[in-house]
Amino acid sequence: MLPGVDETVRYTYRLRPGATARAALLAEWGRCRWLWNEAVHQYKTGRKPTFGKLSKLLTEARARSSWLRDGSQVAQQQTLRTYALALQHSFKVKGRGRPRPKRRKDTLPSLEYTVRGFSIRDRRLRLPGGVAIPVVWSRELSSAPTSVRVYQDTIGHWYASFVVRRETPPAPDVEGAIGVDWGVTTTATTTDATYDLPYLGHRKRCAAELARAQRRMARRRRAKNVTPSNGYLRAKRQAAKVAKKAARQNTHDARVWAKKIIDNHATIAVEDFQPTFLTRSRMARKAADAAIGAAKRELIDRGMRAGRKVVLVPPAYTTMTCSQCGTRAKHRLGLGVRVFRCDTCGYTAGRDRNAARTILATAERGRAGADDVRHAITSFRDGALVRSEPEVPRLSTVGKR
User: Fold this and answer.
1) Do 267 and 120 share a structural domain?
2) How far apart are CA 92 and CA 108, in angstroms?
3) Tens of pLDDT, residues 178-212
4) Nearest to 22 by CA among 152, 120, 161, 119
5) Quick one: 324 exposed, middle or buried, by C-beta within 10 A (0-12, 13-18, 19+)?
6) In this predicted structure, what is the pLDDT of residue 5?
7) Domain co-membership, 35 together with 132
8) Phi then psi for 189, rounded to 5 degrees?
9) Phi and psi of 340, rounded to 5°?
10) Phi, psi torsion values for 361, nearest 5 degrees
11) Where are the beta strands (DSSP E) in 199-308?
12) What is the residue range of 98's domain?
Protein backbone atom coordinates (compact mmCIF):
# COMPACT_ATOMS: atom_id res chain seq x y z
CA MET A 1 0.00 0.00 0.00
CA LEU A 2 1.29 3.46 -0.92
CA PRO A 3 2.03 5.95 1.88
CA GLY A 4 -0.30 8.89 2.46
CA VAL A 5 0.38 12.12 0.57
CA ASP A 6 0.23 15.65 1.91
CA GLU A 7 -1.40 17.66 -0.86
CA THR A 8 -2.76 21.15 -1.48
CA VAL A 9 -6.49 21.24 -2.17
CA ARG A 10 -9.39 23.68 -2.19
CA TYR A 11 -12.29 23.59 0.24
CA THR A 12 -15.29 25.56 -1.04
CA TYR A 13 -18.10 26.89 1.15
CA ARG A 14 -21.27 28.89 0.54
CA LEU A 15 -21.31 32.48 1.80
CA ARG A 16 -24.32 34.42 3.10
CA PRO A 17 -23.38 38.09 2.61
CA GLY A 18 -25.84 40.77 3.66
CA ALA A 19 -26.68 43.84 1.59
CA THR A 20 -23.76 45.85 3.00
CA ALA A 21 -21.22 43.06 2.49
CA ARG A 22 -22.52 42.35 -1.00
CA ALA A 23 -22.15 46.02 -1.95
CA ALA A 24 -18.59 46.06 -0.56
CA LEU A 25 -17.64 42.95 -2.55
CA LEU A 26 -19.03 44.39 -5.78
CA ALA A 27 -17.23 47.69 -5.18
CA GLU A 28 -13.96 45.82 -4.61
CA TRP A 29 -14.55 43.80 -7.76
CA GLY A 30 -15.06 47.06 -9.70
CA ARG A 31 -11.62 48.28 -8.64
CA CYS A 32 -9.94 44.97 -9.49
CA ARG A 33 -11.69 44.80 -12.84
CA TRP A 34 -10.48 48.32 -13.66
CA LEU A 35 -6.90 47.31 -12.82
CA TRP A 36 -7.18 44.21 -15.02
CA ASN A 37 -8.38 46.30 -17.96
CA GLU A 38 -5.56 48.80 -17.39
CA ALA A 39 -3.05 45.93 -17.51
CA VAL A 40 -4.57 44.78 -20.81
CA HIS A 41 -4.20 48.34 -22.12
CA GLN A 42 -0.54 48.37 -21.08
CA TYR A 43 0.11 45.32 -23.23
CA LYS A 44 -1.78 46.72 -26.23
CA THR A 45 0.27 49.93 -26.14
CA GLY A 46 3.49 47.95 -26.61
CA ARG A 47 4.71 47.83 -23.01
CA LYS A 48 5.71 44.60 -21.26
CA PRO A 49 3.46 44.47 -18.18
CA THR A 50 5.38 42.21 -15.83
CA PHE A 51 4.13 41.83 -12.29
CA GLY A 52 6.93 44.06 -10.96
CA LYS A 53 6.08 46.90 -13.33
CA LEU A 54 2.37 46.52 -12.69
CA SER A 55 2.97 46.68 -8.92
CA LYS A 56 4.82 49.98 -9.31
CA LEU A 57 1.98 51.36 -11.42
CA LEU A 58 -0.49 50.22 -8.76
CA THR A 59 1.45 52.07 -6.05
CA GLU A 60 1.41 55.26 -8.13
CA ALA A 61 -2.29 54.88 -8.95
CA ARG A 62 -3.23 54.37 -5.30
CA ALA A 63 -1.27 57.48 -4.35
CA ARG A 64 -3.24 59.55 -6.88
CA SER A 65 -6.71 58.04 -6.48
CA SER A 66 -8.63 57.85 -3.22
CA TRP A 67 -11.08 55.48 -4.95
CA LEU A 68 -8.35 52.83 -5.26
CA ARG A 69 -7.04 53.50 -1.75
CA ASP A 70 -10.47 52.67 -0.36
CA GLY A 71 -10.03 49.09 -1.58
CA SER A 72 -7.81 46.24 -0.45
CA GLN A 73 -4.26 46.40 -1.76
CA VAL A 74 -3.96 42.61 -1.33
CA ALA A 75 -6.89 41.91 -3.66
CA GLN A 76 -5.61 44.42 -6.20
CA GLN A 77 -2.10 42.94 -6.20
CA GLN A 78 -3.51 39.44 -6.61
CA THR A 79 -5.51 40.63 -9.63
CA LEU A 80 -2.34 41.94 -11.28
CA ARG A 81 -0.46 38.76 -10.37
CA THR A 82 -3.18 36.64 -11.97
CA TYR A 83 -3.00 38.77 -15.11
CA ALA A 84 0.79 38.47 -15.32
CA LEU A 85 0.60 34.67 -14.95
CA ALA A 86 -2.15 34.45 -17.58
CA LEU A 87 -0.10 36.57 -19.99
CA GLN A 88 3.01 34.46 -19.39
CA HIS A 89 1.02 31.26 -19.90
CA SER A 90 -0.41 32.55 -23.17
CA PHE A 91 3.10 32.73 -24.66
CA LYS A 92 3.93 29.16 -23.65
CA VAL A 93 0.75 27.42 -24.80
CA LYS A 94 0.16 27.37 -28.53
CA GLY A 95 -3.24 28.66 -29.56
CA ARG A 96 -3.99 30.32 -26.22
CA GLY A 97 -5.08 33.93 -26.67
CA ARG A 98 -3.88 36.92 -24.68
CA PRO A 99 -5.92 38.06 -21.66
CA ARG A 100 -8.92 40.13 -22.70
CA PRO A 101 -10.68 43.05 -20.99
CA LYS A 102 -13.33 42.12 -18.44
CA ARG A 103 -16.69 43.72 -19.17
CA ARG A 104 -19.05 44.38 -16.31
CA LYS A 105 -22.12 42.81 -17.93
CA ASP A 106 -20.59 39.44 -18.80
CA THR A 107 -17.86 38.86 -16.18
CA LEU A 108 -18.62 37.36 -12.78
CA PRO A 109 -16.94 38.85 -9.68
CA SER A 110 -13.88 37.01 -8.37
CA LEU A 111 -11.51 38.28 -5.65
CA GLU A 112 -8.26 36.71 -4.40
CA TYR A 113 -6.87 37.28 -0.91
CA THR A 114 -3.64 35.95 0.58
CA VAL A 115 -3.22 35.22 4.27
CA ARG A 116 -2.49 38.92 4.92
CA GLY A 117 -5.85 39.99 3.53
CA PHE A 118 -8.38 37.85 5.40
CA SER A 119 -9.07 36.09 8.66
CA ILE A 120 -11.62 33.73 10.19
CA ARG A 121 -13.09 34.80 13.51
CA ASP A 122 -16.32 33.74 15.16
CA ARG A 123 -16.98 31.37 12.25
CA ARG A 124 -17.11 34.34 9.86
CA LEU A 125 -14.88 35.32 6.96
CA ARG A 126 -13.47 38.79 7.66
CA LEU A 127 -12.12 40.85 4.76
CA PRO A 128 -10.51 44.31 4.63
CA GLY A 129 -12.81 47.26 5.22
CA GLY A 130 -14.64 45.67 8.14
CA VAL A 131 -16.52 43.20 5.94
CA ALA A 132 -17.69 40.13 7.89
CA ILE A 133 -19.53 37.38 5.99
CA PRO A 134 -21.22 34.33 7.53
CA VAL A 135 -19.93 31.02 6.13
CA VAL A 136 -21.94 27.82 5.76
CA TRP A 137 -19.39 25.41 7.24
CA SER A 138 -20.36 22.13 5.58
CA ARG A 139 -17.11 20.57 6.88
CA GLU A 140 -14.15 21.64 8.95
CA LEU A 141 -10.98 22.99 7.35
CA SER A 142 -8.17 20.44 7.38
CA SER A 143 -5.57 23.13 8.17
CA ALA A 144 -5.15 26.88 8.38
CA PRO A 145 -5.89 28.34 4.92
CA THR A 146 -3.13 30.15 3.04
CA SER A 147 -5.40 32.00 0.60
CA VAL A 148 -9.05 32.38 -0.34
CA ARG A 149 -10.97 33.15 -3.51
CA VAL A 150 -14.34 34.83 -3.09
CA TYR A 151 -16.52 34.58 -6.19
CA GLN A 152 -20.11 34.72 -7.42
CA ASP A 153 -21.70 32.15 -9.71
CA THR A 154 -24.26 32.63 -12.47
CA ILE A 155 -27.17 32.21 -10.06
CA GLY A 156 -25.93 35.01 -7.81
CA HIS A 157 -24.66 32.84 -4.94
CA TRP A 158 -21.37 33.75 -3.28
CA TYR A 159 -18.70 31.19 -2.39
CA ALA A 160 -15.33 31.13 -0.62
CA SER A 161 -12.68 28.69 -1.84
CA PHE A 162 -9.88 28.17 0.72
CA VAL A 163 -6.49 26.69 -0.15
CA VAL A 164 -5.45 24.22 2.58
CA ARG A 165 -3.13 21.28 3.15
CA ARG A 166 -4.66 17.85 3.54
CA GLU A 167 -3.32 14.40 4.35
CA THR A 168 -4.63 12.06 1.66
CA PRO A 169 -5.24 8.50 2.86
CA PRO A 170 -3.19 5.87 1.05
CA ALA A 171 -4.82 4.24 -1.94
CA PRO A 172 -5.27 0.46 -1.76
CA ASP A 173 -3.00 -1.78 -3.78
CA VAL A 174 -4.83 -3.06 -6.86
CA GLU A 175 -3.90 -4.72 -10.10
CA GLY A 176 -5.23 -4.53 -13.60
CA ALA A 177 -5.38 -1.93 -16.34
CA ILE A 178 -8.14 -0.23 -18.28
CA GLY A 179 -8.39 1.84 -21.43
CA VAL A 180 -10.85 4.71 -21.90
CA ASP A 181 -12.21 5.94 -25.23
CA TRP A 182 -14.39 9.06 -25.33
CA GLY A 183 -17.55 9.46 -27.39
CA VAL A 184 -20.91 11.19 -27.63
CA THR A 185 -23.39 8.29 -27.77
CA THR A 186 -21.57 6.74 -24.80
CA THR A 187 -19.52 9.32 -22.92
CA ALA A 188 -16.75 6.87 -21.97
CA THR A 189 -16.28 3.38 -23.40
CA THR A 190 -13.76 1.21 -21.56
CA THR A 191 -12.16 -2.15 -22.17
CA ASP A 192 -14.56 -3.59 -19.59
CA ALA A 193 -18.24 -2.84 -20.23
CA THR A 194 -18.85 -2.79 -16.46
CA TYR A 195 -17.02 0.55 -16.17
CA ASP A 196 -18.61 2.38 -19.10
CA LEU A 197 -19.97 5.88 -18.48
CA PRO A 198 -23.27 6.13 -20.39
CA TYR A 199 -24.67 9.29 -21.88
CA LEU A 200 -27.20 10.43 -19.28
CA GLY A 201 -28.58 13.52 -21.03
CA HIS A 202 -29.05 15.84 -18.05
CA ARG A 203 -29.15 18.97 -20.19
CA LYS A 204 -31.52 17.31 -22.65
CA ARG A 205 -34.05 16.67 -19.88
CA CYS A 206 -33.79 20.32 -18.79
CA ALA A 207 -34.04 21.70 -22.35
CA ALA A 208 -37.79 22.40 -22.26
CA GLU A 209 -37.62 24.22 -18.93
CA LEU A 210 -34.57 26.19 -20.07
CA ALA A 211 -36.31 27.17 -23.31
CA ARG A 212 -39.32 28.49 -21.38
CA ALA A 213 -37.09 30.62 -19.18
CA GLN A 214 -35.19 31.97 -22.18
CA ARG A 215 -38.43 32.86 -23.99
CA ARG A 216 -39.57 34.67 -20.86
CA MET A 217 -36.29 36.59 -20.88
CA ALA A 218 -36.78 37.53 -24.53
CA ARG A 219 -40.30 38.86 -23.90
CA ARG A 220 -39.16 40.98 -20.95
CA ARG A 221 -35.94 42.28 -22.46
CA ARG A 222 -35.79 46.05 -22.63
CA ALA A 223 -33.94 48.29 -25.06
CA LYS A 224 -30.20 48.73 -24.88
CA ASN A 225 -28.86 51.00 -22.11
CA VAL A 226 -32.16 50.69 -20.22
CA THR A 227 -32.25 49.22 -16.71
CA PRO A 228 -33.67 45.67 -16.93
CA SER A 229 -36.93 44.95 -15.17
CA ASN A 230 -37.27 42.73 -12.12
CA GLY A 231 -39.23 40.24 -14.23
CA TYR A 232 -36.32 39.95 -16.67
CA LEU A 233 -33.85 39.42 -13.82
CA ARG A 234 -36.06 36.69 -12.33
CA ALA A 235 -36.27 34.91 -15.70
CA LYS A 236 -32.50 35.21 -16.15
CA ARG A 237 -31.91 33.74 -12.71
CA GLN A 238 -34.27 30.84 -13.43
CA ALA A 239 -32.45 30.03 -16.68
CA ALA A 240 -29.12 30.08 -14.84
CA LYS A 241 -30.47 27.74 -12.15
CA VAL A 242 -31.61 25.20 -14.74
CA ALA A 243 -28.22 25.24 -16.50
CA LYS A 244 -26.38 25.01 -13.18
CA LYS A 245 -28.43 22.01 -12.09
CA ALA A 246 -27.50 20.05 -15.22
CA ALA A 247 -23.82 20.96 -14.84
CA ARG A 248 -23.79 19.78 -11.22
CA GLN A 249 -25.40 16.48 -12.21
CA ASN A 250 -22.70 15.90 -14.83
CA THR A 251 -19.98 16.72 -12.30
CA HIS A 252 -21.43 14.32 -9.73
CA ASP A 253 -21.70 11.47 -12.26
CA ALA A 254 -18.11 12.05 -13.40
CA ARG A 255 -16.80 11.90 -9.83
CA VAL A 256 -18.64 8.68 -8.99
CA TRP A 257 -17.48 7.06 -12.23
CA ALA A 258 -13.84 8.18 -11.81
CA LYS A 259 -13.70 6.84 -8.25
CA LYS A 260 -15.02 3.48 -9.44
CA ILE A 261 -12.30 3.31 -12.11
CA ILE A 262 -9.48 4.32 -9.78
CA ASP A 263 -10.44 2.02 -6.93
CA ASN A 264 -10.12 -1.05 -9.15
CA HIS A 265 -7.25 -0.35 -11.58
CA ALA A 266 -3.56 0.43 -11.21
CA THR A 267 -2.97 1.57 -14.81
CA ILE A 268 -5.39 3.87 -16.62
CA ALA A 269 -4.88 4.61 -20.32
CA VAL A 270 -6.89 7.68 -21.31
CA GLU A 271 -7.50 8.92 -24.83
CA ASP A 272 -6.11 12.46 -24.99
CA PHE A 273 -9.23 13.68 -26.77
CA GLN A 274 -9.78 17.44 -27.12
CA PRO A 275 -13.56 18.01 -27.40
CA THR A 276 -13.31 21.71 -28.31
CA PHE A 277 -13.64 21.12 -32.03
CA LEU A 278 -17.08 19.53 -31.46
CA THR A 279 -18.44 22.97 -30.53
CA ARG A 280 -18.17 23.92 -34.22
CA SER A 281 -20.00 20.84 -35.47
CA ARG A 282 -23.60 19.65 -35.55
CA MET A 283 -22.88 17.57 -32.45
CA ALA A 284 -22.16 20.64 -30.32
CA ARG A 285 -25.27 20.39 -28.14
CA LYS A 286 -24.95 16.68 -27.42
CA ALA A 287 -21.20 16.97 -26.89
CA ALA A 288 -21.79 19.70 -24.31
CA ASP A 289 -24.36 17.49 -22.60
CA ALA A 290 -21.93 14.56 -22.52
CA ALA A 291 -19.38 16.78 -20.67
CA ILE A 292 -16.37 14.83 -21.95
CA GLY A 293 -13.87 17.42 -20.75
CA ALA A 294 -15.20 17.39 -17.18
CA ALA A 295 -15.12 13.58 -16.98
CA LYS A 296 -11.59 13.48 -18.42
CA ARG A 297 -10.24 16.06 -15.95
CA GLU A 298 -11.88 14.29 -13.02
CA LEU A 299 -10.40 10.92 -14.01
CA ILE A 300 -6.88 12.26 -14.53
CA ASP A 301 -6.81 14.36 -11.35
CA ARG A 302 -8.17 11.62 -9.11
CA GLY A 303 -5.92 9.03 -10.69
CA MET A 304 -2.77 11.05 -10.07
CA ARG A 305 -3.78 11.86 -6.49
CA ALA A 306 -4.37 8.16 -5.81
CA GLY A 307 -0.93 7.24 -7.15
CA ARG A 308 -2.19 5.38 -10.21
CA LYS A 309 -0.27 5.29 -13.46
CA VAL A 310 -2.20 7.55 -15.81
CA VAL A 311 -1.12 7.52 -19.46
CA LEU A 312 -2.42 9.95 -22.08
CA VAL A 313 -2.59 8.35 -25.50
CA PRO A 314 -2.99 10.36 -28.74
CA PRO A 315 -6.35 9.59 -30.36
CA ALA A 316 -5.05 9.38 -33.94
CA TYR A 317 -5.79 6.05 -35.70
CA THR A 318 -7.05 4.34 -32.54
CA THR A 319 -10.39 3.69 -34.25
CA MET A 320 -8.72 2.33 -37.40
CA THR A 321 -6.29 -0.03 -35.62
CA CYS A 322 -7.14 -3.61 -34.68
CA SER A 323 -6.58 -4.25 -30.99
CA GLN A 324 -5.85 -7.94 -31.63
CA CYS A 325 -3.19 -7.91 -34.35
CA GLY A 326 -2.26 -4.22 -34.53
CA THR A 327 -3.12 -3.86 -38.22
CA ARG A 328 -4.38 -0.47 -39.32
CA ALA A 329 -7.32 -0.28 -41.70
CA LYS A 330 -6.59 1.33 -45.05
CA HIS A 331 -9.75 3.45 -45.05
CA ARG A 332 -11.36 5.64 -42.41
CA LEU A 333 -14.53 4.48 -40.72
CA GLY A 334 -17.51 6.79 -41.02
CA LEU A 335 -19.40 7.78 -37.90
CA GLY A 336 -22.31 5.60 -39.02
CA VAL A 337 -20.14 2.47 -38.87
CA ARG A 338 -20.36 1.30 -35.26
CA VAL A 339 -18.74 -2.15 -35.67
CA PHE A 340 -15.04 -2.66 -36.36
CA ARG A 341 -14.00 -5.62 -38.52
CA CYS A 342 -10.36 -6.47 -39.15
CA ASP A 343 -9.67 -7.74 -42.68
CA THR A 344 -6.44 -9.39 -41.56
CA CYS A 345 -7.38 -11.51 -38.53
CA GLY A 346 -11.17 -11.32 -38.73
CA TYR A 347 -11.53 -9.73 -35.28
CA THR A 348 -14.92 -8.08 -34.76
CA ALA A 349 -15.91 -5.75 -31.92
CA GLY A 350 -17.73 -2.51 -31.26
CA ARG A 351 -16.01 0.50 -32.74
CA ASP A 352 -15.45 2.29 -29.42
CA ARG A 353 -14.62 -0.93 -27.54
CA ASN A 354 -11.89 -1.76 -30.05
CA ALA A 355 -10.52 1.78 -29.75
CA ALA A 356 -10.38 1.48 -25.94
CA ARG A 357 -8.44 -1.78 -26.22
CA THR A 358 -6.07 -0.21 -28.73
CA ILE A 359 -5.47 2.70 -26.34
CA LEU A 360 -4.68 0.27 -23.53
CA ALA A 361 -2.33 -1.76 -25.75
CA THR A 362 -0.48 1.43 -26.71
CA ALA A 363 -0.01 2.42 -23.07
CA GLU A 364 1.12 -1.04 -21.94
CA ARG A 365 3.80 -1.15 -24.62
CA GLY A 366 5.18 2.17 -23.39
CA ARG A 367 4.66 3.94 -26.67
CA ALA A 368 2.24 6.76 -25.96
CA GLY A 369 3.93 8.74 -28.74
CA ALA A 370 3.32 9.82 -32.28
CA ASP A 371 5.95 10.03 -35.02
CA ASP A 372 8.40 12.74 -33.93
CA VAL A 373 6.16 13.91 -31.08
CA ARG A 374 6.46 12.09 -27.76
CA HIS A 375 3.32 12.30 -25.68
CA ALA A 376 4.01 12.87 -22.00
CA ILE A 377 3.22 10.11 -19.51
CA THR A 378 1.83 11.71 -16.38
CA SER A 379 2.08 9.82 -13.12
CA PHE A 380 2.19 10.40 -9.38
CA ARG A 381 5.24 8.98 -7.63
CA ASP A 382 6.75 9.57 -4.19
CA GLY A 383 4.22 12.24 -3.36
CA ALA A 384 4.98 14.41 -6.41
CA LEU A 385 3.68 14.81 -9.93
CA VAL A 386 6.03 13.33 -12.53
CA ARG A 387 5.82 14.19 -16.22
CA SER A 388 8.28 12.37 -18.44
CA GLU A 389 8.67 12.07 -22.18
CA PRO A 390 9.95 8.55 -22.84
CA GLU A 391 12.23 7.99 -25.80
CA VAL A 392 10.51 5.13 -27.59
CA PRO A 393 11.26 3.53 -30.95
CA ARG A 394 8.84 3.87 -33.82
CA LEU A 395 8.36 0.18 -34.51
CA SER A 396 4.62 -0.26 -34.85
CA THR A 397 1.62 1.53 -36.25
CA VAL A 398 -0.42 1.23 -33.06
CA GLY A 399 -0.88 4.65 -31.49
CA LYS A 400 0.97 6.54 -34.23
CA ARG A 401 -0.40 9.85 -35.37
Assistant:
1) no
2) 26
3) 999 998 889 999 999 999 999 988 988 888 999 99
4) 152
5) middle
6) 65
7) yes
8) -105, 125
9) -95, 130
10) -65, -40
11) 267-271
12) 5-168
The SS3 call for residue 234 is: helix
Q: Give per-residue burial for 275-300: e unless 16+ CB within 10 Å, then b.
A: beebeeeebeebbbbbbbbbbbebbb
31 neighbors 65 (Cβ within 8 angstroms): no
Query: How many beta carbons lie within 10 A of that of residue 219, not counting itself?
Result: 10
Q: What is the dihedral angle through the alpha carbons of 65, 66, 71, 76, rounded to the nearest 10 degrees?
A: 10
Residue 159 lies in a domain: yes
pTM for this one? Answer: 0.79
List the beta strands (DSSP E) in 246-363. 267-271, 309-313, 339-341, 348-350
Phi and psi at residue 123, to the nearest 5°: 65, 20
Q: Are residues 296 and 381 in the same domain?
A: yes
Q: Are residues 132 and 264 in the same domain?
A: no
User: Is residue 268 a contact partner of residue 303, using CB atoms and an 8 Å limit?
Assistant: yes
Please tell me the total count of domains within the chain. Answer: 2
Q: State whether 163 and 283 are in the same domain.
A: no
Sorted by sequence, the CB contacts under 8 Å of residue 122 that are 6+ apart come out as none
How high does pLDDT run on average in the chain?
85
Residue 124: inside a domain: yes
Rounded to whole angstroms, how far apart are CA atoms 254 and 260?
A: 10
- CATH code of the domain containing 318: 3.30.420
Residues 139 and 184 in one domain: no
